[in-house]
Write a sequence for this structure.
């Protein structure tokens, strides 16, 4: 009997997605729980697993957009796995003492290609690489993310692929369109990129966004971090970073200026009395904002673990819908990319977002003398419909005070 494989509901507001890559092919025998394909939506990518064992028949090709509930494959659960006959030994195959051909290194690598990690599989798919031709440096020859990235960067550009029959093969992505002179390529935006674009435009059209700036001296935080790093890492198994300080400082500022922790909904203003802080994370697919829940109740170690865990999930495409929804305020760190100053855009329906930037030694006046200090520009973008300038400036000064004098924070290390 054939069992239909349908696109499951993966989030309340998600109605469609793209079958970005099939992990199993038509004719393959799959076991219940095996990952069949990756569904890429406008918020997350998730692997869809087989609910039963049997032989797979894929209906929808890679790259096609599908609706929730749509049938994309069938699994014939009446069929059992069959043993394949031993292949005829070629000249180059190694032969064991019994006369049977042994597995060649190429075949072993091909088998490893079926167990690629989500991060490696995404690079292989997007860059149209052939994993069996890449030398793996991981355990037992497994491909790592670095291997895939190196292969993508070092490969030589090639023209249109030609099949053995001499006919031109299909382009890597059916939705890509190259101009006749090769000067540009038109490709369909991913669901995540389309969602990001729509959110940014909506934020600009629905909120009165204004940005106020300040700067903070990072000397005290840097000194405290350096002094505490070894003991903190040994005790908690995670490094002490700067983001946990800014999360704590933001919570203190939100307590001092509660309106920044609220949002406008229709003709009402909703005041949040909890502190779920979004931390913007850049990935190969685009910017995502996982939420650190109840940041006010967590220790520095808890915050650093949450940040590290979300960063790993984001890189590997394993974030879930619940990881990305419900935040009350967002922090974005453009400084990791070298940004000296920027005006962050609101993350609707939130009313505020704090922008961190690159730490730069700059001359500043200290007790009447000019000294070189590690300075960071801070930017607070806010919805002027709900927040007045005085409140925005007060918020930013509170963050500055907490960073320049970390003793004002609830230090627990």
């Amino acid at each position: 009997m054939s069992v239909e494989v349908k696109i499951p509901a993966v989030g309340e507001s998600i109605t469609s997605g793209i079958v970005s890559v099939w992990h199993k092919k038509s004719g393959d025998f799959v076991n219940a729980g095996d990952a069949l394909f990756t569904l890429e939506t406008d918020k997350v990518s998730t692997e869809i697993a087989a609910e039963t064992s049997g032989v797979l028949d894929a209906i929808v090709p890679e790259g096609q957009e599908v609706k929730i509930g749509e049938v994309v494959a069938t699994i014939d659960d009446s069929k059992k796995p069959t043993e394949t006959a031993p292949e005829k030994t070629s000249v180059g195959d190694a032969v064991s003492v019994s006369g049977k051909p042994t597995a060649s290194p190429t075949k072993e690598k091909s088998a490893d290609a079926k167990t690629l990690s989500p991060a490696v599989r995404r690079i292989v798919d997007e860059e149209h690489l052939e994993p069996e031709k890449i030398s793996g440096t991981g355990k037992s020859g497994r491909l790592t993310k670095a291997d895939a990235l190196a292969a993508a960067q070092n490969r030589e550009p090639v023209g249109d692929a030609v099949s053995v029959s001499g006919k031109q093969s299909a382009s890597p992505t059916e939705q890509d369109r190259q101009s006749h002179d090769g000067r540009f390529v038109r490709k369909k935006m991913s669901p995540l990129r389309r969602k990001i674009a729509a959110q940014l435009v909506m934020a600009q059209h629905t909120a009165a966004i204004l940005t106020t700036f300040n700067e903070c001296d990072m000397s005290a935080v840097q000194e405290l971090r350096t002094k505490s790093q070894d003991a903190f890492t040994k005790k908690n198994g995670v490094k002490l970073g700067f983001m946990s300080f800014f999360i704590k400082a933001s919570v203190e500022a939100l307590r001092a200026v509660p309106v920044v922790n609220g949002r406008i909904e229709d003709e009402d203003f909703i005041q949040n009395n909890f502190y779920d802080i979004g931390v913007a994370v850049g990935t190969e697919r685009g910017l995502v904002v996982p939420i650190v829940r109840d940041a006010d109740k967590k220790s520095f170690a808890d915050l650093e673990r949450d940040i590290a865990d979300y960063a790993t999930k984001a890189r590997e495409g394993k974030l879930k819908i619940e990881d990305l929804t419900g935040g009350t305020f967002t922090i974005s760190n453009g400084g990791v990319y070298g940004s000296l100053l920027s005006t962050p855009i609101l993350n609707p329906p939130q009313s505020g977002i704090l922008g961190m930037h690159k730490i730069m030694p700059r001359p500043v006046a200290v007790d009447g003398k000019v000294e070189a200090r590690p300075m960071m520009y801070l930017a607070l973008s806010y919805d002027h419909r709900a927040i007045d300038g005085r409140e925005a400036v007060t918020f930013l000064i509170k963050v500055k005070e907490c960073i320049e004098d970390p003793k004002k924070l609830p230090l627990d290390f």
About this structure: The first helix runs from residue 105 to 113. Confidence is low (pLDDT under 50) at residues 83-114, 156-175. The CA atoms of residues 38 and 47 lie 4 Å apart. The first strand starts at residue 2 and ends at 6.
